[in-house]
Amino acid sequence: MAVNGYRSADRAKAFLIVEGSQDCNVYRLFACPTRCAVQWGYGRANALDAGRLLDRDGFVGFVVAMDQDHWIIDNSHPKDSFVVWTDGRDLESTLLFAGVADRIIANFAHPGSLDEIKRETGKTVMDHLVDWCSTLGAMRWVIVRGRMFLSCKEIDAFGSVDRESLEISVERLAYAIIDASDHPLRGSRQSLAKRLVFETKQLLAKAGQQRWLYCSGHDLCRALASGLREDFGRDLCEGLTAEVIEASVRSAYAWSDFERTDLHHRIRAWEGGNAPWRVLADRPNPVSLNQEAQ
Q1: Would you put residue 112 in left (φ > 0), alpha (ψ -120 to 50) or beta?
Q2: What predicted TM-score, i.e. pTM, was given to this entire model?
Q3: 3-86+261-273 under CATH 1.10.3470, yes or no
Q4: All residues at 6 or more sequence positions from 211 whose CB lies less than 8 Å from its CB, including other chains
Q5: Contacts 24+ apart (CB under 8 A), 180-184
Q6: Which residue ranges does the chain devote to CATH 3.40.50?
Q7: Phi, psi (5° rounding) for residue 239?
Q8: What is the pLDDT of residues 3-21, one digit of tens each?
């Protein structure tokens, strides 16, 4: 991202700097096109560095919108006044928890399966999804915090779910992560699994009703795609991928969803303290993603 480009004719506009190109597609739906330019920051660190360069240059008409990522767990948010962050760990989870997930589940699930799951397990599909992905997210944090040199990148939480109860096995998940590792194990397989299980359960017990904060958007989309494809989806879900779900998340997002988020309130609060700079439109832009229709 060229910061020098901000010191040009567009200087009369506010800037909303975001982490990635796909984020741009979402934020541009809600930015005021005549008052704000949405810029892709080419990654998390670059976006924050660009903001700090602009801040040192004395320019105040910009906001950097970032995923919370690990900040949501260790409360290490940057103190820069120009930074706003997502409600969940990332933009995808924020969209899903704003109401999009329920609409996607309703659209893709087999008729009657949602009521059957609720009746037999006492939980909704969304409840199960949070359980699966918060368990994976908490275990990922145990691994990062303990510097265990294990990778969760290719792990699908649904792979450790019992198909009858739809409950995730923490033990099965731990072994799945260990067995997928390319690094030599520090200690025995059994002792490492025991530690992962114990510390993950500790984190989830401490989180309580806030366990959803451990969920990443990609984990949610991957697990939901697998659940729909293998268990409770319509026939059309055969071959369904996480990428299709992620695209559906962005296309199902509505202005009313955005207005309910803390992210929306944070940007509005920034506008209130930095008049006359303006980032958000009053209503959705003409080119929208299936706004209120869904």
Answers
A1: left
A2: 0.90
A3: no
A4: 130, 131, 134, 138, 204
A5: 180/151, 180/154, 180/155, 181/149, 181/150, 181/151, 182/151, 183/149, 183/150
A6: 3-86+261-273
A7: 85, 5
A8: 555 544 456 899 999 999 9
